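Bench notes, afternoon.
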Amino acid sequence: MIIDVAGYYEPASTTAGLYMGIPEQRICDTRSSAPANECTGKETSAGRVLTFQLAGQGGLPASGLEAAVVDITAIDSPGFGHPALAPASVPRPETSNLNFGAGEVVENSVLMPVDSSGNVAIYVANGTPEITVDVSGYFTSLGSSGAEGAEFAPLANPERVCDTRTAEAVNPCTGKAIGPGQTLTVAVARIGDVPADATAAVLNITAVGSTSGGFVNVFPAGQSLPATSDVNVAPGEAVAGMSIATVGTNGSVSIHNSGGSTNVVVDIVGWYS
C-alpha cells in the first residue's frame, strides 16, 4: 500500500479554494487519431515531460485558477509504468497518479494544481502510453472573483446510493444493469445529509462484471453526453474511480455505459454547495 497526499481543505473562505463545476471536456489527447488539441503530436516516454496549458482551456478561467479536477487516462503502453502530474514550474514529484500495465487502459481522477502561468506537466516513469486528460471543474485562487463557488462538506458516514446488482440489498438501482449505449439516472441530492442545493457530489463509481471492455462516464442529468470518460472497464473486472460530479436536473447525475453490459455501484462521500 502506498499513500501520497496531494492537498487539504481549509476552513470556509470567501474567495480561495471554492469549487466551480463545468461541462466535462477533453483538453489533452496524444493519439494521432484525435482532433487537434493541446497535446497533439506530444509523445510520452520514460524521462520525457508532457507540458501543456490548463488555464483558459475547456471552460477553465484564464486567471484566478488554483487547481482543476481532471481525469487522466493512460492507454495501450507496450510496458508498465506510471505518470505523475504537477505544476509545470516545480520539480518532478516522487509520487504517482495511476499505474498501468502493458496494453491496459487505466484512468484516475486528480485534483491538479497549476503554476503561475496556468501550465501543468505530466512526468512518465517507464512505458510509452498515449495520454488523455478531461477537465470537469476547478478551484479558485486567493483573491479571485470566484466567490460564487461552492465549499466542500464531507459525509460523516459515506453512503451507498445505487447498486444495480440483484443479489444486493434492495435500493433505487436494483436490477438496473446498464446495457451498451444506455444511461442510468441516479439521485444524489437529498440523500442522507446531502442538501437539495448541492451543486456537485463526490462519488466513488465502481463498474462490476462488465461483459466487454469500454468505459463509464458521469455527467449532470438533463445535459448532453460528453465525449469523455470517468472509469475504464475490462470484462469481468471490478474497477472503481472517483468523480466530482456536477449535479443536474432533480438533484441527479447520469451514468452512461459505452459497451457491453455492466453493473454499477455508486457511493457518495461528500458534496459541494
